[in-house]
Amino acid sequence: MIYGKYPDNHRVRLIEGLRALAAYLEDRPELPVPREAKVAVSVLFGTDDEKVAEVKCIAGLTGSSLDPEAPSHGHHTAEVSFGPVRYSVTAITETAFARWDAWWSYHDVVSPDPPAGA
Question: What is the largest CA-CA distance in the chain?
């Protein structure tokens, strides 16, 4: 349960949905599309070491490598791109979660002055 609970057929339904979206957009060239699309998987459970090991494993399966900048922020990420479409997996350390919780705890306390002329 490193990712969370999904129905047994979740993977099949997700892939079918992605294919249906691609066909839908292909059949309707008048519709705008985003600059890029990202399918992101979060490793939610386990120790920090277990989560990082999972990201490393997926990096190996996809032939990608870990983002060298991400660990400095407590994130461990691997990504593979298909043109403007990306598949990524990320694990966030407990320390990074705690830092985010501490930062977010101030959101109702501090009210910046509005910009001049606003």
Answer: 55
